[in-house]
Amino acid sequence: MDLLKHLSDGLNFTYDLIGPPDGNWGAELDNGTWNGMVGQLQRKEIDMVATALTVLSQREMVMDFTQPYYYESTSILIKKPDPDEKQWTKLIDPFSSTVFLCVGISVPACSLLLFLFEKYNPFYRKVKEKKDIRVLHQFSELVWYMYGALLTHGGTHIAASTAGRTFLSCWWIFCIIIVATYSGNFVAVLSVTKETLPFEGIEGLVGQDIYKWGTIGGSATQHYQSGKAFYDGVLKFSRSDPTVLRGDYDAHILKVLKGEYAFLWDNIPMEISVINSCELAKVSTDMFSTYAIGLPNNSPFEKIFTDGIILTLESGLIDLWMTKVWPQHHSCRESFLTPTKPIAVLDIQIAFYIIGGGVCLAVLSLLAEFFKLKFQKYHQKRARAREEDEIQESVNHQETISKREILM
């Protein structure tokens, strides 16, 4: 209204405001005609459309648009979820499900590796009589040992071989990183209460099965989503609930307040609704709309209105008018929900690199112990052979002496 009044004063024209009889913005019908305000302009029942009309290539076939006067994002309006419903998940909130899965797999996998390093290590062939250091040769004991290390609880026995100790050292470093990261993030989860989004973006909305969704029928938002999963859902919901495509904005807000309903529309009215109601929350999307004044096709006034809008934009008047309609006081602590970020695998990837390095070092140590044993066996065999040769030579020498004495 402020823009229209400013243009009428600058361009010296008068106007009368009327609304579309059918209450629609303007959508193409099967017979090629248009309904709503676009249809009125196509039939020349009105001279211009001065409202938040979105520029669409299909609409430009039957009308002209001026220079856009505003660019607006699209948001999803929902009712804030009850934070008490998710209290039980605080124990698993610090890590993502992928991290828990990787850690859970690491315990039995690393237990198996340590079992192999210890069970078939040649080091223990020399110490068979020492039963205490062979406790880790039982797989069940190893699983409990590795699990206890993950809970920062050490065991009474440790590996005696170099390969086993090398691998266990890396496992302990891995446990320290995991426990420290979890503890720090868990303290943050307990001390800072954050409201979490039930989904993110349009893709998240269509991928869940709790919320129904809708938008204003005949709008550009409906046109953008035509043929996509969002619109397919709207058509499915409209069969049992036609109000999901109702043209009344306030009716959609009331429907959102009842719960389990998501409303897709322009960001500015959404944000004002969120500021005025503490029960509402806004989910951002990657959709954007362009607003312009609509004129009949090939209108001679297009350049005049475009020049007037450019001057208005450059003067900063539109920003000033926006501050007039914006609520000055916010009754809620937060105007929108902030998605929490659990620790992902990439955030603690160094811990898994350490485990991988520990496996490599343990394998190298095991190979070194095998080569060392073979080398020792080789030298022992040569020493025994040399000793046997010397004994045999001494025996032969003694026999020779004995024979000479007999002959004498």
TrEMBL record:
GO terms for biological process: detection of stimulus involved in sensory perception. Disulfide bonds join C278-C332. Keywords: Cell membrane, Disulfide bond, Glycoprotein, Ion channel, Ion transport, Ligand-gated ion channel, Membrane, Receptor, Transmembrane, Transmembrane helix, Transport. GO terms for cellular component: plasma membrane. It is a multi-pass membrane protein. PANTHER family: IONOTROPIC RECEPTOR 20A-RELATED, IONOTROPIC RECEPTOR 60A. This is GRID1. It comes from Mytilus coruscus (Sea mussel). Residues 1-43 form the Ionotropic glutamate receptor L-glutamate and glycine-binding domain.
